[in-house]
């Protein structure tokens, strides 16, 4: 299903937000916006040893999320051709209520569920590697291309972006009526993750690329 496809209702029963349903977001364009702004995917797989969730970088097209690892990567090996679950989370702020019970966070998160497919077509492999490389900042065009050996040593997995949901929380705390007049502070504070100045390697053979230079001061999740 393409990003532009209409979808404002849940894709399936298992991706229907039940708790905090007013924070649910099923609009594909909104879910893609979160996936583009996110930086790390937490990939959950049922392995022979039990459930395992590991952080990974990712890249997306209108149709798929791509993940990669070494051929020896146990998570992707166990997850191939099985149902997996991938979560992307962005923390936008801390929310202070008048009681611990009502404390919260502002956030954007997407949960994707689907069958992981091992990508074997070389054109799709290269395209996926480029998507992952360029996901946060485009640098593919200022690097050496992967060699055949490097490609052979890498496992790429695609998860269809068909069955997914998002939850978004914004704004201040919601205090209980009995606490409204209480003598406690309540509010929220934004969280940002800003890029600092680039530090060149001792063996850097070129100036800092423009795409990296332009990150300075920007928010990772903007
Ligand atoms: C931000 C981020 C992005 C990453 N991106 C990628 C990526 O795109 N591709 C990739 O292959 N790897 C990535 N990694 C590393 C990844 O999380 C795994 O460590 C790696 O893929 C090895 O997986 P495995 O299943 O072979 O681990 P194994 O070494 O077989 O795992 C065995 C055990 O080691 C522990 N373990 C493994 N990884 C971690 C971890 N990250 N933190 C704490 N304990 C751990 C767990 O207890 C696990 O059960 C990333 C890590 C981070 C933090």
Question: Could you characterize the architecture of this molecule?
Answer:
The protein has 222 residues and is α+β, with helices and mostly antiparallel strands. It folds into two domains: 13-191, Electron Transport, Fmn-binding Protein, Chain A (Pnp Oxidase, Chain A, Roll); 193-222, no CATH class. Helix content is 17%, strand content 32%. The protein is built from five helices and eleven strands. The strands form two sheets. Strands 1, 2, 3, 6, 7, 10 and 11 form a seven-stranded antiparallel beta sheet that branches. A four-stranded antiparallel beta sheet has the order 4-5-9-8. A hairpin with a 7-residue loop joins strand 6 and strand 7. The longest helix is centred in the middle third of the chain and has 13 residues, at 122-134. The two termini are 25 Å apart. The relative contact order is 0.20. The model has no long low-confidence stretch (mean pLDDT 94). Flavin-adenine dinucleotide is lined by residues 40, 52, 54-57, 68-70, 73-75. Residues 40, 52, 54-57, 68-70, 73-75 line the site of flavin-adenine dinucleotide (FAD). Residues 1-13 have a biased composition (Low complexity). Residues 1-22 are annotated as: Disordered. InterPro entries: Pyridox_Oxase-rel (IPR024747), Split_barrel_FMN-bd (IPR012349).
């Amino acid at each position: 299903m393409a990003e532009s496809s209409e979808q404002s209702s849940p894709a399936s029963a298992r991706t229907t937000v039940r708790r905090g349903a007013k924070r649910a977001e099923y609009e594909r364009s909104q879910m893609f916006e979160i996936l583009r702004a996110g930086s790390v995917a937490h990939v959950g797989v049922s392995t022979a040893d039990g459930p395992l969730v590991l952080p990974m970088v990712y890249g997306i097209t209108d149709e798929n999320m791509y993940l990669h690892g070494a051929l020896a990567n146990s998570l992707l090996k166990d997850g191939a051709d099985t149902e997996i679950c991938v979560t992307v989370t962005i923390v936008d702020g801390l929310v202070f209520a008048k009681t611990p019970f009502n404390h919260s966070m502002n956030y954007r998160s997407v949960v994707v569920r689907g069958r992981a497919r091992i990508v074997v077509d070389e054109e799709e492999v290269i395209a996926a590697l480029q998507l992952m490389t360029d996901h946060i900042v485009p640098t593919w065009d200022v690097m050496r291309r992967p060699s055949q050996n490097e490609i052979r040593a890498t496992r790429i997995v695609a998860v269809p972006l068909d069955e997914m949901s998002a939850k978004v929380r914004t704004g201040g705390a919601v205090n209980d009526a009995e606490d409204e007049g209480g003598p406690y502070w309540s509010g929220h504070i934004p969280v940002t993750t800003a890029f600092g100045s680039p530090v060149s390697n001792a063996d850097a053979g070129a100036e800092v690329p423009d795409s990296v230079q332009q990150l300075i001061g920007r928010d990772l999740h903007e």
